[in-house]
What we know:
- Among the domains are: 76 residues; 109 residues, CATH 2.40.50; 90 residues, no CATH class; 45 residues; 145 residues, Metallo-beta-lactamase, Chain A.
- The protein has 676 residues and is an alpha+beta fold.
- It is 53% helix and 15% strand.
- 29% of the residues are buried.
Amino acid sequence: MQRLFRFIPIQLTFFLVLGIVFGRVFDIQFNYLSVILIGLFFLLTLSYWLSNKSFSQYLHFNLLTYLLTFFVGISTSFVHNDLNNSRHYTHFISEGNNIVLIIDKVLKSGNYNDKYEALVVKVNMHSTVGKVLLSVKKDSVTKLFVDDKIYVSSEFKQVNTPKNPYSFDYSSYLKNKQIYHQIRTSNHKFLHLSKRVFSFKGLAANFRRTINVKLKENGFKGDELGVINALLLGQRQDISPELLQSYAGAGAIHILAVSGLHVGIILLILNFLFAPLERLKNGKFIKLIVVISFLWIFAFIAGMSASVVRAVTMFTAVAIGMQVNRPTNVYNTLIISMFFLLLFHPSFLFDVGFQLSYLAVFFIVWLQPLLVGLWFPNYKIVNFFWKLLTVSIAAQIGILPLSLYYFHQFPSLFFISNLLIIPALGLILGFGVLVIALALLNILPEFMSNGYNFLIHTMNKLISLIASQEDYLFKNISFSLLMLVVSYFLIIFGFRFFEKRTTKRLFYFLAAILQMQSVFIYEKKVLQSTDEFIVFKKSRNSLIADRKGDNIKILHNLDSISFAKSIILKNYRIGIGKTKITSIDSIPNSYHFKDKKILIVDSLGVYNIDGFKPQIVLLQQSPKINLLRLIENLKPQLIIADGSNYKTYKKRWQQTCEQKNTPFYDVSQKGAFILK
């Protein structure tokens, strides 16, 4: 591995990544960046021409190269940030907006709205660029498709930020995709315009739609059709949430995301199919062009998502290495593909799928040979499954800390689902391509469509059966960023010591263990020393937490089922770590938190308590009170209204508070109120 870090593309990729992160955090004017880049390029060129074999000048050349790569990372982060474009729609927003949108991607529908990614091509007669999230109230008749152009008069609304602690930040997720606003409308409030003349995305979407029509004509429907769309067309929108959860619980969700696994299998199939071309003059070169073309056609049909693009980019390099008869160094291929992907798509660095896929491949290449060497079965079939198992274990070891950090669960039966599904995945993909081709030609035999339908149905049932073993699915695991970092140190130094037992490697391994223990102790101390009082944002209900260290008292008016299934409390518990919760299904009128006295006024409207002068008043369940009189009598420092109150009441209360210069906090608007 030490030799690996001497590989120049790895060094350059490291400094490119640093530059992208720096450019994401700090805003640097592009004119300054331009001057710095030109200056560094001039110095690098001068250093190259003046260089000789002396170590000092070689070192100067390296330092200038690293510095230039670092600023290239900052620059590519700047250039690919849509907000820095003078034509971005945010520069032309007014109170009333006349907007022209082009549908760029169809997303998974919600319960009440169809959702799309849309390009903003015109705002108030100004030609613009940029993307928004478009939500359209569901209609049984009208649907929008890629390349549809519509006119709508609407407001650009900010995507909601998390209103409760440790909730999923959907706004940050969208910002990483360069989406900063959303537009809400319904079918009768927008006007259809002539479609976009041509786009590759529209062509691919039309082709996928044609395939789906043909498959439906041949009896495919429901989750079976949804899985075919995911496996072969890169679209997961039509899979039911229950089946998606089953694949996640079985540790097989990667099967439904077109990635390196699928593209690698497709590369092997293509190499086999076009092997006869090698007999022709310049046959190897012709075969290479044909194979790479088909790989990118597949990427195009699958929607050119981040996972597909990175997988096809990497396996394009692998295909070239295979055809020129050079032993391809997968590390080199991996890093070079990462470098160019990040150079042109720096936002990929912050994509969870990007991080998981590259870590999985890296650990497979590094750890699988170590693991497979632990046992040498005598029978070929046993050896085959042993190798397959070691691949799954190596990949899971590589992505485990990241999976715990993002998803807070570990499917311990992953090896069973992978052993059962992955050996058959080549057959499933190859058979699927044949089924689609015959369906498009209207010559798909009924026995073949029934057979493939049964194959997909059986795979879904098998996954659901594995996922139903809930005792083997470890959920709600708290895992911090610090734990993520030290976990990778522990894994890397642990396996390096396993690889070669030297005193130096033992020292690093023990240091990683000590580091892990230090983080455990630090986080436990932080957990036990933190006290807070929280009024959560919960629509139509009241939900309050009084936390003292790792003990949490929950005051609420929820029923037992709603309390047990509360996502708000689940996220909170995961976020802060292991805690002891006490549930109290009644809320008193007065409460003390440290030196603060809190008066809770519910629907009964009682607020005169002898001798009790609160600093904070919490209003809940829409009490019919004269707030002006309450303020004059109690003189509170702050008034809070939670989500159980009527909007009209809260609006009137806010006006009263402004009149009396008393701070007013609406939890529904501002998010959870937290008192440390």
